[in-house]
Fold these 2 entries.
Entry 1:
Amino acid sequence: MTTISLHGERLARDPEELRNRKKEEILSFCRHIAASSPITATCIYRQSGDWAKSEAGVIQVLLVIHNFRPRLMNYVKVLDDSSLSVLAADEWVFERDVDKGFLGEALASELIFPYVPLTNEKYLHFQEVKLKKRLVLEMLESLVLDFPELSYSFYVEPQYFMHEAILTRARFYPPLMYNMPNLTKTRGKEATEKVLCGYIDALEKLEREGVVNFSNGFVRLSKDFVEYARRRKARFINLFKTGQRTLFASALGVFPQILNFLSQNKDLLPTLQKMLSPNVHPNAQVEDPENHVYIPTATGLVPLANRIDIQAFAREVLAADKNAKVTIESLGGILNDVFLVTTHAEGKETKVVVKRFRDWSNFKWFPLTLWSVGTRSFTVLGKSRLEKECATSQLLYSKGLHVPRLLHVSPPRRLIFMEYIEGEDVRKVVRRVASSKNENELHECLQIIERVGELLAEVHALDMALGDTKPENMIVGRTGEVYMTDFEQASHNGDKAWDIAEFLYYAGHDISPFVAQSRVEQMAKAFLHGYLKTGGNVKTIKNAGNPKYTKVFSVFTFPHLMLILSNVCRNVDKLERK
């Protein structure tokens, strides 16, 4: 056979002839492997450069054969100017790997990366879309399980699925990334669009099935799918599949092929050394998938991978002038760090509240856990609390309730940036109810307390419980509107009785033990009247008077005040609804 080295000059001028020559050599070897069995499809996979060029190195081919008796076999051949590795698989085995990950996707995963079809392109694309549809479902389930509250509002670009599929495999099997620069940070546009096309076709099928829907180029998860995916079973299935992929990728992956090549071509040793280098980090080679998942805020969509810090936010988002004066004042916070950020630019002052979520693993959290044991559980991880805060804030704001606007978020830094509300917290209003000697002032204060009850009933009507309804988390704005804040313990289908109990019993903490009983009852009845007249449930209020809740807050409030407040709850049916 005439070698390329003898005719390199002529073939360099005729690349198409070179491509056809190599293609015929590859297919000839594939026909030899298949013998009398029909070839279903053939493709070149994981090729970092032009497979037809002399510097292509190793050409890897996936050969699908109908009724292939060995079922699965790896073949190696040295061509004139490169090495050829053929992974031959029975059609039934290949399709089971596509459908259900029969071999941990050791075969099917080659369709996740760019491939060059040599025969039966239609069949390969059909299998590619089928595979990617299944993988998209798995990735969506994982996304929901990682962000159970925020996933309802996510805006996802199709590129997320492409990068997530690659990065997941690269984390467990780093050699995959060595010969895949076309989809790394230096990727080629053509290769990226080709891979992305299969995901878009898969997503369109899922849209017809009601799993997702498209909105201005973004993928949105359906509510039904989010609720289904939150089941724990999906997590165990995904973990099992990840283990499968790792096992079979190691068995059928790059290492066995390279060892075979090394026996015939010593020039491949540098390739193996690069792939085994400890300096190769998959995360550094592939774009972060979370750059393509967005959280809606009042200032626009923010990537889940956003790492903006407080100073950068103040200068880049709040102020057009990067030299603007920025002051950061600590507002305290026991379980979180809370800051007031003020920018001064062009004679304008802008204020924003920033909260940094810490994990509650130290002694400060221990007493709260003991006090509430048997009554309710709390979310302690900073990441989870940030997620609840963002998701609940967006939901309540979208329903027209008075909450501070979510301006920005940085999940990796556990920071959220919220609108600053000028005013006083309701704790001060409660104190005036107990101490005021002015009837007009007392009446105004009771109206505010009643409005808090109305707001809470509106939240409960959305099948939400806030989880932290202390009076200090309610703010009376300058125009008299009551704003709710602090949603890091909020949840769907949560304990609504806890919300009522916490507000009332914490309010009792701010009342003097020597105040008249009638004042305490007035405060409680105003709150409950507002709750009932806006559709609140009587049974929920009665439950708040049970010892299950009073025992928790007895640490904060005097016993006789607790008794007064719990009695009002238990006798709530005597209140008239106006």
Entry 2:
Amino acid sequence: MASDMVLAAVEGQPERTGAALPVRPRIWPAVVLVGLYWTCSLALPWVGLAMFIQFLSMLASVGLLLLIFTVWWLTNRRIRGTDRLMILGAAIGGGVLSALFSHKVNLVAWLLMLLPWVFTSWTVWLLMARKMSAPTRQRGLLAVLFLTWGAFTLIRIDGLRGDGGAEIRWRWTPTPGELYEAELAQRSREAASLPPLAPAKVLSIQPGDWPSFRGANRDSVVRDTRIATDWKTTPPKQLWRQRVGPGWSSVSIIGDRLFTQEQRGRSEAVVCLDMATGREIWAYKDDASFSDAQAGPGPRATPTFADGRIYALGATGILNCLDASSGKHKWSRDVRADAGAKLPVWGFASSPLVVKGVVVVSAEGDGQKNLLAYRADSGEPAWTADVGKISYGSPQPASLLGAEQILFLGARGLIAIDPDKGKILWEIGNPAGPAMPHSLQPHLIGASQVLIASEANGTTLIDVKRDGDKWTASQHWNSRALKPTFNDFVVHHGSIYGFDGATFCCADVQTGERRWKEGRYDHGQVLLLADQDLLLVIAENGAVILVAANAEEHKELGRFQAIKGKTWNHPVIAHGRLYVRNAEEIACYELPSAPDKKR
């Protein structure tokens, strides 16, 4: 009886015996629905929506597809009711089996990617089978549904791109982390035949170094460096390029040493490399690992150098202080325990700030333990401040109206803290909400203004005033012209250069008005070469693009493919060399020097 009912469903017999209805089910609503979905899906990345809004749009479109397609199927009166339920049950059953046997399923990402293909194959088969015999249509529809679900057990999702699309690989291919571990083993075997590295030496900051996240001032500005801009004639020269462990840490450069963080199997590692060759000098490992569905495994924060030491925060909340020359352990703190915090969904991502003898990091603790300061020499707690629970930004040094401060853009908005005692000096609300946390660094504009930006609120210029010990802050303007997600911006000669969603743009500092929006670099990062009015952009696909810092027009001067794979890490220029990395590769390029104008 069951098979008879399915046959009747595919044949399109009417529900009531003797009714004079066409034998074929009406298919055009499904064709229109699936066609509209794919049209919107393909067009959505080009609209320029903010990352979270784009994700919500994808979620809504798949939800509508699921709802309307299901309603259409269940109300198709040219198919018997029991048969509609049977086919729908088979589709649901196939999905359950597929989920059970798929690779490490993240249910939301998995359904967002799979459901449109299931409904598409369902519709395509109904179109193809219109003139086939009833048994063939019945068996074919069931087979297509199960084959579609089954196909997805052969792949794995290695996180999401900036536009919310899945990064797909065959299930049996090695992960970047596995390939890196194999390469580490090979490097270890080859190390015996290589000449020994120079002995450890005391390190100190020199001109041209890059000691912390986004540079000494955490503003992604490169100074005292001039490069050639004709990359067709004199392109950047690759000095070395190699695999790196998963992670979203950038790099710090001190002299001839490079510092970064990565995942090595089940361990988080702080790593020191030789700047000229990429050879490992030392690595310090903790028995810890973290991964999330969007970005994958690895540490998120960038190591900080200060007074001969490296300070690094891992994604699980372990704060290490290490001797920069040798990697010898000095002290550690469990930030998660000290803050009474839960592990954030994106991991701990705060790059440590060392100022006035303390090292400061952020955490998602309860009460007044959101920003934590430790004595830089001993690791003993110094103070805590309440800056709100939800953020993955980093503390920012600032000097406003003659006073040193620490700025932090968190759940409550922008907050200024006294670095000596942790006292809040002033704050201004700019909440992003739990689903769209702040992640970008504040930027000083002169001595009394601060520029902040987020996906939720766009860009805001804030005026700060001081009357003795009394501080006040007010909004100068707010603009939706530039709405970056995790893409930090730079400011040069009265203009803001950064990402509005996936597109590079320029806006006016004093008004917030957009000047231009061009350059499809997806979700990349940017550096400013201030001495030459140049911007160096690294696109999400690992391409490096040289752009003129010109408020009148967007002009590309050169580009080349630096590394492969999803690249969200901040690039670095130090001592005339460009360093880029992502979760798979790290590379060093010598930038061609600008010609001498006197010649």
